[in-house]
């Protein structure tokens, strides 16, 4: 794929993701407790934590959710998961954690910008509600 075509596709994805609360956090126009920031993703504390540790790992590119991912996003998604594991290690989370992508209405997704929840600090029950 040409660079121009690739850029156009990325732009289209950003437009599709729209102006969410997470794009504002990426732009720095609303505050967040950021724990990791690199060229591809951001990790910050969830404002309404469901466990003693509740972080969100989000790509800086505006992708709506898992259902909107394409094959070329594989490396980005891998990066999100690896960053989650690295942050968990750095925070000294040794008893385990849960990573969750909510997708769509029935999946419980409320913000239309791809995000990976990292939950830890208490035993998490299964199945989820
Ligand atoms: P989901 O329901 O999977 O779409 O998750 C969205 C998450 O974003 C929820 O857990 C919210 O508590 C969280 N959230 C919403 N607004 C903010 C914000 N401004 N800062 C941090 N987390 C937020």
Task: Please explain how this structure is put together.
This protein has 129 residues and is of the alpha+beta class. Helix content is 30%, strand content 19%. Adenosine monophosphate (AMP) binds at residues 21, 32, 46-48, 56, 102, 108-111.
What is shown here, in short?
30% of the residues lie in helices and 19% in strands. It is an alpha+beta fold and 129 residues long.
Helix-strand pattern: HHEEEHEE
Please state the oligomeric state of the protein chains shown.
single chain
Using DSSP, what is the number of strands? 5
The CATH superfamily is HIT-like
Given helix and strand content, the structural type is alpha+beta
The CATH class turns out to be Alpha Beta
Q: Which fold name fills CATH's third level, the topology?
A: HIT family, subunit A
| Rg over CA atoms | 15 Å
Which consecutive residue ranges, at least 5 long each, have pLDDT under 50?
none
Q: Into which percent range does the helicity of residues fall?
A: 25-40%
Strand % is 15-25%
Distance between the termini: 42 Å
Number of domains: 1
The average pLDDT value, as a whole number, equals 92
Largest sheet: 5 strands, antiparallel
The rough form would be described as globular
Corresponding CATH architecture: 2-Layer Sandwich
Helical run tally: 3
